[in-house]
Amino acid sequence: MKLDKPVSGGPCWTELGTSDLAAAKRFYEGLFGWRAETDPRQEAGGYTIAHLGDAPVAALTPLYQEGQPVAWNVSFAVPDADAAAARVSEAGGSVLVGPMDVFDVGRFAVAVDPTGAVFQLWQARAFPGAGLLSAPGSLGWVELLTRAPERAVEFYTTVFGWSVNASEHYTQWGIDGADFGGMVTMDDKFPHEVPAHWLPYFAVHDVDMTAADATEAGGTVLMEPTSVPEGPRIAVLRDPQGAMFGVYRAADEK
């Protein structure tokens, strides 16, 4: 079972903070077939929503704060952002921004887990989040990369009530029987300066072609297309401004 729409506790949205919004729009529109529309209101700060057809699937934004890294961020749906932010603090994390209202569309907060990974909380009002999940061109998987996996499990199960399906090689997160993400332990292969982080994976029709298209458009392949035994075919890419993201094709897709 996979998520095809936002559910409470699960990933509901992903946003790219980028140093060159116009270039990022061109790159991702070419790669995923997105149609990106920037909110014209000054108070929206250049917030840009990418669509597939009529469905919103992701956002692209300028960098709003000095020192903010170029990166994709993942949001998780909660019924009450204030209560969820309180659980974050009680479980050993920190709330960096908010909770605060975003026009009439929702209430959000930015938080960091005890292992250093930043994520967002989203309490929907007029905007529930992604109109598509797990369809080609949309968010389909989220992966936590951390150096303290046991602490991460304790934290996220406390804050969101996720189930944990752990094997020898990989740990998967789930909610109500649907696995939506996983966790990788950062070992010595990861440079010391790379912090713990959440990595979004977008579903695609062809991982190899997408990796080639990304390279041709000025991106970089960080992990070559690889088939996971009894699992998906995946690759990890970096866009021309430096943001990392994954792409995948599920093993059961024809």
TrEMBL record:
PROSITE patterns: VOC. Gene3D superfamilies: 2,3-Dihydroxybiphenyl 1,2-Dioxygenase, domain 1 (3.10.180.10). It comes from the Bacteria. Residues 10-124, 138-250 form the VOC domain. Transmembrane segments: none annotated. InterPro entries: Anthracycline_SecMetBiosynth (IPR052164), Glyas_Bleomycin-R_OHBP_Dase (IPR029068), Glyas_Fos-R_dOase_dom (IPR004360), VOC_core (IPR037523). SUPFAM superfamilies: Glyoxalase/Bleomycin resistance protein/Dihydroxybiphenyl dioxygenase (SSF54593). PANTHER family: GB|AAF24581.1, GLYOXALASE-RELATED. This is Hydroxylase.
